[in-house]
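hey team, just a heads up i'm posting the complex here instead of the shared drive bc the drive is being weird again. everything in one block, sequence lines first with there labels, then the predicted structure for the whole assembly after. its three chains so it's a bit long, scroll down
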Amino acid sequence: MSAITAINMPKWGMEMSEGVISDWHAKPGDQVTEGADLVDIETSKIINTVTVPKSGLLRAIVAQSGETWDVGALLGVIAPAEVSDADIESFVAERTGGASADNVSAASSETVAEDTPAQTPAVTATPMNVGDEDSPSASSQNGSAATTSTTNADALKALGEGDDDSNVQATVIARRLAKQYGINLNNLTATGRHGRVNKADLEQAVLAAGGQLLASASSPNVSFQRDDSAVKATAVARRLAGDLGVNLLDCRASGDRGRVCKADVEAQAARQGQSVSASSVFAPVSDEAPESEAVAMTGMRKTIAARLQASKQTAPHFRVNVDVEIDNLLAARQQINGAQREAKISVNDFIVKACACALQRYPAMNIQFDGETIRRFKHADISIAVAIDEGLITPIAKAVEGKGLITLSNEVRDLATRAKIGRLSPEEFQGGTFCVSNLGMYGIKSFDAIINPPQAAILAVGAGEQRPVVKGGELTVATVMSLSLSSDHRVIDGALAAEFMQCLKGLLEQPATMLG
Amino acid sequence: MTNNTSSGSSSIKTYREAINEALRQEMRRDPTVIVMGEEVSGGAGCAGQDDAYGGVFGVTKGLMPEFGRERVIDTPISESAIIGAASGAANNGLRPVAELMFFDFIGVCFDQIFNQAAKFRYMFGGKARTPMVIRGTVGAGWRAGAQHSSMLHPVVTHTPGLKVVMPSNAYDAKGLMIQAIRDDDPVLFLEHKIMYDLKCEVPDDPYTIPFGEAAFPRQGNDVTIVAMSNMVTRAIEAADLLAKEGIHCDVIDPRTVSPLDEESILESVEVTGRLVVVDEAHERCSLAADISSIVAEKAFSSLRAPIRKVTAPHAPVPFSPVLEDAYVPSVDRIVSAVRDVLGG
Amino acid sequence: MPYQTEFLLRVYRTMKTIRVFEERCIKEFEGGNIPGFVHASNGQEAVAVAACIDLTDRDIIGSTHRGHGHCIAKGCDVIGMMKEIMGKATGLCKGKGGSMHIADFDKGMIGANAIVGGGPPLCNGAALGAKTRGTRDIALSFSGDGSANQGTVLEALNFAVVLKLPHVFMFENNGYGEGTGADYALGCSSLAERNGAFGMPSEYVDGLDFFATYEACQRAIERARNGEGPSAIEAETVRFDGHFIGDPQLYRGENEIQNAKDTRDCIKIFRERVTGESWLKDEEMDRIDAEVSDLIDTAVEEGLAAPNPDPATDLMADVYCSY
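-- predicted structure starts here --
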């Protein structure tokens, strides 16, 4: 048994408690080499790759693509060929409490298919679901999936069989996707240019065999049942939701102790275009499909929801606002960007830099608070809110007080780029002592932001716009930007926040003072 | 992708040698294949050596000694007459490969190409065949000035009836040249003068590469980069740099821009959702603009970011090296366009 | 003496300037100071000078890819030319053109041309301008034996006759169109005869004999100024260098170039004639040699020191007058 190596869900960063299996790079029976990429895992913040801990055969995959597993959970098993299938199964059973042993895809998959036909879908579905947390198999962990009939499974399996297909004429993309789907190109009808098998041919065959398509750019939202059993709801609301086909995850929670109540379900049903008149509350759901689609809560979405809700509920927010004239700043920016070709400093870079200077002068603002202990930090590590397709992430520019504007600007651009493609490492977005959120690029005049715990304050930045201002009794025009600081009153008082903002205003209006 | 019949041997060859080999093998196979142009052999009517040039870039070197002056014809400097004669010969049983030393000289003989050769088949109700290849060097980077450096593939791609081939490496150059010679339509075979000494493994036996099938020199799911001719080399370099940061690009080399493998481009964009098109021609009415419009029209819902074009500016090619280097799309510009579409 | 001393000194100085300029271009090209490719005209100086020496700045010439000599003969600034050939911002065309695209409109030089046969139709236009405006200005186009076979040139010849344009067609026959012999590429037995067949006065001259060429040009220019229409001259000359600098010239005969330099050098021939006739003294010409050498040294020094264009401002400048 010692020859068996377990692959477990890793813990990347302090906040990670679970991960979604995104993509296996090997299938059961494959020889895998130490250090090679093995399985991609999506956490609430990043996609990262687990590498092969020890060379051998990948004997079993326990955690299928799309499933969510706790940190430490067994994902798969590597062992040399001498280890018997039975040993593998019992190894898996020991570590999954027996229940999950059914999910084992042993090295000799046809054995499994013959011995346990009921489980065939779990095995053959594997290649169908590579790659995305939105894929339909995400539901299989909830017991509601596994609906693929044996016939479909056979059809899908048949698509994968056949002779070497390397001589089949196919588009490059079709060939790549075929590999992902586990499909043999010999089984497809070619309709592409010059008789090539193209992407459409492949997808049509998958659908015809009862399979489902991989999520891709063109079909980002495959709708499927999402498990709402963990949502707090009243009993009536839950029953009503079931009857009306409303998912509790879509409902507001306006009830007592944050529960979804009947009114919330009815409101959601109304949004979905369903009648909720008193007489029809318990009537069968209309045959007409509502004009909406269920959108999956990704891992990231869930985290954002939980953290910001907690922040808004536990931290007493208060706000101070100030208007800043930024004409000097814009001139300085133009000067720097004009003088150095590689410089592309943004207004936001100036703001981040100014915040760092102000935080150095007001160390009581440069803190984290976990509800019990206030931690003051030496360096100003400033989180910057970046909108990405899946939600929001806050990569951190570290020790900003010691960085020049060009260095800072390049660093922020790099962080933002990698944030957008999911390639930040945990230490790059966890922590931070202050946060800047800028919606100025959308022309937003001003807004309030929710504090990003364990931080205690966040600066919301609006657009710089020309506004009339009065100076010495004269009406004149200046470029003005509105700033709003949200602070946690448990640890930051009004006067402190006001002095901080005064200081920040001074720095931004006379940018040269940042040098001092 | 190829219809190799063969011993399977191969060797490292330059782009120049690959084209030369293609011409030589086709001339051996088919006696109707002839080569004509200015100094395709060189030394005609001179006291010194024959075959002194083999084309100013040496691409046709050695063909005249093997096949004689009847099949490797040095012509006067008369581009209209060269192309006209090639078209007429093609209509009458030969398969001429005519050379326009610099493709800029198409300006001198454009009528013979676009009013004559391109239109015969359609205009004459499908009765005419014009199996001719026009070879020409394109592109900047040689400090050759405005009249010897243009990237004119958009002009001919725009013209129905012409096929336009732009190989980006020696392997493709050989397979596409053989296909071009065997093709029954007029084919413009555009060789980038910067690439003549680029080497790669090339099979020794003849093989063809079908027109309208793109190659993917790099594969990735993050961003699609379409590039042609010499820009493929730069796109690959950019993709390799980005790969080190974890950004994986699908680099598509259409190889022929008419016909164009729209299917492969659209499929790739469906996967990546992001497109950068690199074209050494000027932006307006370029292949970059053309491909962008195809994707915007047929794969709009797949796009997650605006398309970015990386092209030469709307100006003739300048002579001064500092200006020319700024003119030609660089690896840096491709990298930053990729970052842009990723939202950097 | 049929020629003034000042005229003869000017002729000698101009031919010598072209010779030294071209030899220096070869040296600087080989030294890596000149980018791209350059077509040198050393050996052909007598034709350029004979055709241009009596033209005014309002008379127009159109040149070829082998155009340095024509530029110098027409009075272009050799320092500005060297800067241009080196791709510098202060070159005659701001570094945008290079060797094959030198133009100086103030001097009536409307451009070297990298397209064989590009010039003669343009010079018809210049001649049409003069004729329409009623000036006595003329246009003179240079073509080679190679471009004589371009459709554009043949069309231009007929067009000039039909419109009776003040245009002198000067064909420099150096025996080679790039790397192909004129004997092969010119299907006719005499280019001069073929030109005459278009219906204009046409003659053949020995282009190595400055005086013969000059006199033929005077006759043609005079006809043009007097509104009597176009003329054509075929001047046989010799190309000392390759089609381009670096051309291995395998197509040339054994010792052909050395023999030409020994026995067919138009500057030597000129010098022997003027000293033989006692029109000029060796000392006068030696002094000019030294001055020319200094001038070209200065041109190269200034060329090397001149600033490069700035892509930020110069790349997109001058695409249009307005846009």
